[in-house]
Amino acid sequence: MKPALVILAGALPLSAPAEELTSEETKFFEQKIRPVLAKYCYECHAEGEKIKGGLRVDYRDGLIHGGDSGPAVVPGDPTKSLIYTAMAYQDPDYEMPPKKKLPDEIIEDFRKWIEMGAPDPRVPDKVVVQSEIDIEEGKKHWSFQAPKASPAPQVEDAGWPVSFVDSHILSGLEKEGLRPASDAAPDVLLRRLHFDLTGLPPSYGQIMAFAEAWAKDPEAAYSAKVEELLASEHFGERWGRHWLDVARYAESTGKEVNTSFPYAWRYRDYVIDSFNEDKPYDRFVMEQIAGDLLPAKYDEDWQEGLIATGFLAMGPKSLNQQNPRQFEADLVDEQIDATSQAILGLTVSCARCHDHKSDPIPTEDYYSIAGIFHSTKTYFGTVNAVATRRATKLLELPVSTDEPQGDISPEEYQALAEQLEEQRNQLRELVRSGARQGNLQQQVIRIRTTSAFLEERLGSYNPDGTKKSFAMGVQDHARPEDATVLIRGELDMPAQRVDRGFLQLLDFCEDECPPDASGRLELAQWLTSEENPLTARVMANRIWSKLFGQGIVTSPDNFGVSGNTPTHPELLDALALEFVKGEWSVKSLIRELVHSRTYRMASTWNAEAYRKDPGNALLWRMPVRRLDAEALRDAMLFASGQLDSQRPLGSVIGEAGHVGIGRAFNTERLDSYQDYRSVYLPIVRDALPSSLALFDGADANIVTGAREETNIPSQALYLMNNDFVLTQAKSMATRLMEHTDDKDEWIRMSFLLCYGRVPNGYEVSAANGFFAQFRFGQDDDLSVLTTYCHSLLAAAEFRYLN
């Protein structure tokens, strides 16, 4: 439903109406201000003309709303009012009128007028956006209702379920006359658990130990293995990567000018650590939205919360956007989109230009939330240059940390300072010489760019040469403000202002945004309230999807009307309630799910079940899943013995990437520069490493709750020919040869490393037949064994999980 546009004479003004002005204020404006605006400004900045710079000065709200460069008038503060600085010729980039400076007495009148509060009786007819959405009717959608507790359904085969999860799944199967698959073999379960919980295969020793424990007591062995993996440091690397997909994690801006985010890796490490320590999910969410505003006893705690707000700074950005207001509007829109999809499973940003097409979200609600983010300053780094106009500073951390770049000497620091001063002197000379055209202008641009990079580098060190520590993140603006509704999202079409707030369809919260703060803290509290019907449901569904191949809601980022309905709604409600009851513990919910008999089913094919349920929505078997890109690469490194399990400090992109990365960036070196886990590979937007891009790595430009799973020829070609794969095959062969010269042991050990199981008789025979073609000790034994190992790494069983 489109919002209605209503013309109201003098209604809903953005400023004080005329009757509230004193006669002296009105007289001052009419005699000193309006004539000057009409004579010198209306030609370019009034209705009926081509509006320049998006600025209208023929009514008060046009001045307050401002144009492309920001508010023209900030009542009470001439120094922040662009109309005053432009008239006073205080900024060479903003000199108005452009041909000749106004007399000093006129400029002084404008200064007095702004200090008076910019009284202005001109309140025109207003366009007011009104919604026709029936919010009460919209609230009836299933996901907007509070989760309901219900007893586990009764089933015919009462001996099969071991948890409430199983009862729900079996009930659905029995209604269709289906039976669940048999229990999976222990070696299948072990490999499944290892990949699902840590993203790595079991080692040779772990396989042997589990088999021995299983023979004595299967349940005890299984429980012990679950606890071991939940406690592993690799758990956070696996499950942190899942959240990084949702958080659209990347180390560059993407879009037209792909420039690096030099400190994005701090957020990556924060996420991994949060999952390892099993930080309650509600706290995890609050930190990412308002971590800088949460009470903190120690600097270390506040610092962690500040780094967490990197979530809001992480999105793609058009740094070459000429219009600063458009850049901010797009940045805020991206923050709303990421926050609402990641946490609520709603596409709130669809209401930017009109009422949401399917969900009960009016345009006014969008701008209520937008006011919160417009009142927030986002810091992401980069440097202003010719094509990067929208750079920001970074936030300096209160507690110094280890830095990948290291310190410099005081002498090096002084040399940088002298070099910067030399550049500044050159710039002053060129400006004084009137460098406005041709080659001189190009010199000015070059020196300004060089100076910017030198200033940034110098600012990253203390005078003694020690490295400062920085982070991406957000902070509240000093003067929080409500947002103005923009008709069709157009900057030059403002309507009414709306109070900062939340979605009307979820009106359980009576808190309001305080006038002296952005409202992010209140937003975080609203998102994580136990009364919010979406947050726990959405995360429980995300956890389920990573263990069972797809979510109970198969559109994990869209729980709205246009999203998919849950296959097992009562089960989803039960999981959401269990999640909150368990103090939002991700590990506790995972423990519950992997102990279910549903999770421990085999992936055995059943023709009748397939005929009735080809998509396996009812879970009549455990789905066969392809390893995701990171797990596949890590498994190769694991089998070859080359995996470095330590966390690297920083990222290869780092500070060297402060210049634009560009479209011709060589992605091949990203795969091979390190043997760390794939979660630590640098993520450059639109330039992923081949191992991730070819195997459906997450698109860092958007919230990615569910990755695609393709099977295409280029993947097979990669596995056959890529240098990274060939290197791992050779390293694996070397590993086997160093372990033993017994070919039967090569075969046995290689299958355990690659597939987590011993080979069957046919496979042993085929491998021996291959080896029999060569004369070991006379031919190139390493090449022969490398070819054999390569065949195992490239096989389908290596990249699929039963």
Automatic annotation (TrEMBL):
Coiled-coil parts of chain: 410-437
Domain DUF1549: 165-377
Signal peptide annotation: 1-18
Domain DUF1553: 519-769
Keywords for the protein's UniProt record, in alphabetical order: Coiled coil, Signal
Domain of life of the native organism: Bacteria
Residue intervals of the Cytochrome C Planctomycete-type domain: 41-99
Protein name: Planctomycete cytochrome C
Organism whose genome encodes this protein: Haloferula helveola
